[in-house]
Design a protein that fits this description.
217 residues, nine-stranded mixed β-sheet, globular
Length: 217
């Protein structure tokens, strides 16, 4: 990897999804750029050249960009170079109406040996999991305390890797079904860093605080 651009966030979106990304995440990106410079890229060769010379603060990948054949070389350098040496990868931020279950599980299992399974899609209130092992310089105050929105949750996640979980509602049948087993935002250790997934479906309600927290502020 090249020079350490420790404030910059690299945003990878495939060209076919670019217009949809802008329609869903325009407000979020505008808000994020007030705090962090963002380098957006849609062309795999450009991403490869950038990553050969620069080491961004984090890489943000909405949708399934890194599962596409054209991005296999980008995935290799992100996984075997960038993350292996401490870089942070934030995935999810969904663009499709519903994620491909097989593609989702295969991506994390094969590339990162992460056994996540796609859970239910539900609208509920999510709160920060007190069991999550916070990483310096992150503190509970880094994140929003809670938020209410729809999410494609993840299950088969270690309890300490669940970041935002359904807020306890013991009288709710839905919470009893998913609240104890699923999470909307999760992370898993990979080599010297972390891979994150954000299942929230409303792009413009994803907060700057949440993403910056995952990017370690």
């Amino acid at each position: 990897m090249g020079s350490n651009d420790h404030h910059e966030i690299l945003l990878l979106v495939d060209d076919c999804s670019l217009s949809l990304f802008h329609s869903r995440y325009e407000n979020f990106v505008s808000d994020l750029t007030k705090t962090r410079p963002i380098r957006g890229m849609t062309i795999p060769d450009s991403a490869l050249k950038y990553l050969s010379k620069h080491t961004p603060k984090a890489i943000l990948v909405p949708g399934d960009c890194l599962t596409l054949p054209a991005y296999l070389d980008v995935l290799d350098i992100v996984r075997d170079g960038y993350i292996r040496h401490g870089g942070v990868l934030v995935t999810g931020l969904l663009l499709a109406e519903s994620p491909d279950v097989t593609l989702f599980e295969k991506f994390f299992r094969i590339n990162f040996t992460i056994p996540w399974k796609l859970g239910s899609c539900c609208w509920t209130t999510y709160t920060l999991n007190r069991l999550w092992k916070l990483l310096d310089p992150v503190t509970p105050l880094t994140f929003p305390a809670l938020f209410t929105m729809q999410s494609f949750n993840v299950k088969n996640v270690d309890g300490t890797h669940k970041i935002f979980i359904p807020s306890p509602q013991p009288d709710s049948p839905q919470w009893l079904e998913v609240g104890l087993t699923e999470a909307a935002v999760v992370g898993a250790k990979f080599h010297d860093s972390w891979v994150y997934y954000v299942g929230l479906t409303d792009g413009n309600m994803v907060t700057r605080a949440l993403i910056l927290g995952l990017c370690r502020s």
